[in-house]
Write a structure and sequence with these properties.
This protein is of the alpha/beta class and about 260 residues long. Helices cover about 45% and strands about 15% of the residues. The protein has two domains: about 140 residues, Rossmann fold (3-Layer(aba) Sandwich); about 110 residues, Rossmann fold (3-Layer(aba) Sandwich). The chain binds D-glutamic acid.
Length: about 260
C-alpha cells in the first residue's frame, strides 16, 4: 500500500477529464494536479519546448511526493513521455495517446477520424499509430487549433465554440467516418457538442477511462494502491489560480478551492 498522491499534469484544465476518471475508478487515491496554464497551448509548441516544460513539471510533482505521474495530455505524451521516462527511470509514467487501435477495431465503414491538437496531428507518433493499427483504413486526421483555448476559458456551450467545432468537424462530416477519437484531453468537455454536431451514426470515443484503468493496473502491479479514507485533492497552476479554480469547478461540477500558483 502507498498512500502518497498520484501526480498529474496537463497544459491546463483538459487533464481534468482524466482526473475525473481516476477519481471515479480509484476513490481512495489522493491526487496532485498541475495545470501549466501559463504555457497553454501545448498544441502549438515544439518537441524541445515540450520536453523542457514537462521535465520541470515532473520535478515539481515529485517534490510533492507523487508516487506516479499521469501525463494527462496527448501532446505532451506523444512528444515527451519517452524523454521523461529516460530522465526519471524510477518513476512510473502513464500517458494518453489517440486511440487509433480501438477506432480501427470499431469502424464498420473503414473510415475513422482523430481530433487532436496541431502538434499531435502532425506528430510522427500519430503517423506511427496509424501505420501500425489502421494501415487499411481511411483516416481523417484533424488538427483542431483553438479548441483547447475555448475550454480553458470555460466556453463549452458558446456560439463561438460551436462555430469553431463546425469548422473542425466539416471534414469528418464530409467523410464516411463512423467513429471519432478525442485525441486531446480538453475535448471530452466538448463531447456532447461534438456528438450533437456529428449526429447519431457516429460514435465519439473518450479515452479517459482506459487511462485510469492503466494507472490502476500499474499501481496494483507495484503494490502501490492507496487506502485513504479521506483522499486529498490539490491543484496548482502556473497561470491564473482564480480563473483555473473557477473553470475547473464548472467543468468538474466539484468545488476546486485553494488553487496554488507555482512557477516551474
Ligand atoms: N490537453 C492537451 C492534449 O491532450 C493539449 C492542449 C493544448 O495545450 O494544446 O493534447
Amino acid at each position: 500500500m502507498d498512500n502518497r498522491p498520484i501526480g498529474m499534469f496537463d497544459s491546463g484544465v483538459g487533464g481534468l477529464s482524466i482526473w475525473r476518471a481516476l477519481r471515479k475508478l480509484l476513490p481512495q487515491e489522493s491526487m496532485v494536479f498541475l495545470a501549466d496554464s501559463g504555457h497553454v497551448p501545448y498544441g502549438e509548441k515544439s518537441t524541445a519546448e515540450l520536453r523542457d516544460l514537462t521535465t520541470r513539471i515532473a520535478r515539481f510533482l515529485l517534490s510533492q511526493d507523487s508516487k506516479m505521474i499521469v501525463v494527462a495530455c496527448n501532446t505532451a505524451t506523444v512528444h515527451a513521455i519517452g524523454h521523461l521516462r529516460e530522465t526519471f527511470p524510477a518513476v512510473p509514467f502513464v500517458g494518453v495517446v489517440p486511440v487509433v487501435k480501438t477506432l480501427a477495431r470499431w469502424t464498420r465503414t473503414g473510415t475513422i477520424a482523430v481530433l487532436s491538437t496541431p502538434a499531435t496531428s502532425q506528430s510522427e507518433y500519430l503517423a506511427g499509430l496509424i501505420s501500425e493499427f489502421a494501415p487499411d483504413k481511411e483516416v481523417i486526421n484533424v488538427g483542431c487549433d483553438g479548441l483547447e483555448n475555448m475550454v480553458e476559458a470555460g466556453h463549452v456551450r458558446t456560439r463561438q465554440t460551436t462555430a469553431l467545432l463546425e469548422r473542425h468537424l466539416a471534414p469528418v462530416r464530409d467523410s464516411r467516418a463512423d467513429v471519432v477519437g478525442l485525441g486531446c484531453t480538453h475535448y471530452p468537455f466538448l463531447r456532447h457538442r461534438i456528438k450533437h454536431l456529428l449526429g447519431r451514426g457516429v460514435r465519439v470515443y473518450d479515452p479517459s477511462r482506459p487511462v485510469a484503468r492503466r494507472a490502476r493496473q500499474l499501481l496494483r502491479q507495484g503494490d502501490a494502491l492507496a487506502a485513504n479514507p479521506h483522499p486529498q485533492y490539490r491543484f496548482y497552476t502556473t497561470g491564473d489560480a482564480g480563473l483555473f479554480g473557477l473553470v475547473a469547478g464548472k467543468l468538474l461540477r466539484f468545488p476546486v478551492r485553494d488553487v496554488g500558483h507555482v512557477e516551474i
